[in-house]
Amino acid sequence: MIYLNIHPKRLHVVMKSPTAYSGYVVFDLEQYGVSFSSMTTPLTLLREGESLHHGWRLDIEPIDGVVVPQYTAFVESFNFYVFQLLKCKPLFEIEQELPEWNVHFEDVYFDMSGETPRMVSPSSKKTNSIKKLLKKLF
């Protein structure tokens, strides 16, 4: 069994051109009681027409030096969290003059210890409903 919690902290995306978006996401990691702060990994924001996530998807590169079981499932869960639960939309979709998009996350983490990622929000009473929504993905 692997004990690993991924705590997303912030997301930063820059519009390089009307069709190219790149940036990074910052995570805190907790593995076997050891904490790693401000782990940064690159990402690409992709426009996919009218897909599950309102036409947007984050393609997040693996976290350097950390083995994350079910990494693809984590990325899908994170996309679901950002675009479905938080209902975030890139600002440049709304206002073309804003070339950057920043999202700061509240107290939430992804427990990667089980067969599928489990999202936990200690400060929210919506944790059970979030678990049910994530189950639909897997």
Topology:
Layout: E1 4-17, E2 20-31, E3 34-47, E4 56-60, H1 71-85, H2 91-94, E5 100-104, E6 109-111, E7 118-120, H3 127-135
Antiparallel strand pairs: 1-2, 1-5, 1-6, 2-3, 3-4, 6-7
Folded structure, characterized:
Strands 1, 2, 3, 4, 5, 6 and 7 form a 7-stranded antiparallel sheet that branches. The two termini are 20 Å apart. 20% of the residues lie in helices and 41% in strands. It is elongated, with a radius of gyration of 15 Å. The longest helix has 15 residues, at 71-85. It has one domain (4-135). With 138 residues, the chain is α+β, with helices and mostly antiparallel strands.
How many separate structural domains?
Answer: 1
H-E string: EEEEHHEEEH
Structure summary, number of beta strands: 7
**Over the alpha carbons, how many angstroms does the gyration radius reach?**
15 Å
Short description:
The chain has 3 helices and 7 strands. With 138 residues, the protein is of the alpha+beta class.
Main attributes of the structure:
138 residues, 3 helices
